[in-house]
Amino acid sequence: MLNWKELYSECVNCNKCDLSKNRTNMVFGEGNLKSPIMFIGEAPGADEDRTGRPFVGRAGKLLTKALTALELTREKDYYVCNICKCRPANNRNPFEEEAKACIPYLRNQFALVKPKIIVCLGAVSLRYIMGNNYRITRDRGTWIERKGCYMTATFHPAAILRDENKKRVFWEDLKSIKNKYDELKKEEE
Ligand code: URA
């Protein structure tokens, strides 16, 4: 396992897949390095590629705003990153070989942060984290426990921008995440 500095250096110099050829910036991840919650998205979009920061575009702002309303902040409560650290052209889904090349970096981040809660944002993240049998519409909002880590999924915030009807359940899912976080905190006290 690499430490943060080593891992960042590997990622910023990575050319394991073709996404590296067109990146402006590698988007590593951001937040409290000892966060109880880790949000995992799909891959950077244009704003993220430009700035090198995850979830800073329209979808990211929606997510941040909703989490702030629940008093969850990047600085204190969560770490946010993606399956792929470089932007796929035209925001297409990452190809399997791109995701598979990048996931070892994500595993290393997980091992360093040691979150108690993992939240998959959207279908792509859910599939690569939990497995091929999971479906976002059917399985979002449910919890499973693996090796002491609680895992769940909700819609990708970009899906909420496209379809207002998903907003209510998205909000319910985020509240459930906050409840789990509060529960785990109480258990520690
Ligand atoms: N969508 C994602 O999945 N990740 C980001 O960082 C931004 C948009």
Short précis:
Keywords: 4Fe-4S, DNA damage, DNA repair, Hydrolase, Iron, Iron-sulfur, Metal-binding. With 189 residues, this protein is α/β, with parallel strands linked by helices.
- Net shape: globular
Beta-strand portion reads 5-15%
| CATH level-3 fold name | Uracil-DNA Glycosylase, subunit E
- Can you list the ligands bound to this structure? uracil
InterPro entries: UDG_Type-4/5, Ura-DNA_glyco_family4, Uracil-DNA_glycosylase-like, Uracil-DNA_glycosylase-like_sf
Keywords: 4Fe-4S, DNA damage, DNA repair, Hydrolase, Iron, Iron-sulfur, Metal-binding
Pfam families: UDG (PF03167)
Protein name: Type-4 uracil-DNA glycosylase
Explained architecture:
By secondary structure, the protein is of the alpha/beta class. The chain has a single domain (4-177), classed as Uracil-DNA Glycosylase, subunit E (3-Layer(aba) Sandwich). 45% of the residues lie in helices and 14% in strands. The protein has eight helices and six strands, in the order αββααβαβααββαα. The protein has a six-stranded mixed sheet with strand order 1-3-2-4-6-5, with helices on both faces. β5 and β6 (149-154) form a beta hairpin. The chain starts with a helix and ends with a helix. Pfam families: UDG. InterPro entries: UDG_Type-4/5, Ura-DNA_glyco_family4, Uracil-DNA_glycosylase-like, Uracil-DNA_glycosylase-like_sf. Residues 28-175 form the Uracil-DNA glycosylase-like domain. Its EC number is 3.2.2.27. It catalyses: Hydrolyzes single-stranded DNA or mismatched double-stranded DNA and polynucleotides, releasing free uracil.
